[in-house]
Amino acid sequence: QRFRTTNDLIDAAGKGILSPVMMLTIHPQRWNNRLIPWLYELLWQNTKNTVKGILTALRSN
Fold first, then answer.
1. Rounded mean pLDDT of the chain?
2. This prediction's pTM
């Protein structure tokens, strides 16, 4: 089963349906309590993902 949000995990735990073995893919380098570094990381990740999407679309044509 795939979970997209923290609340999905919390709900599954409450229902007792979590697998005994799990892998969490997290990005701690994106965590920041200061606004400017957080915004920089957000913009940088969105820019990279947009470029990757364009390159993927171009390669599939």
1. 91
2. 0.55
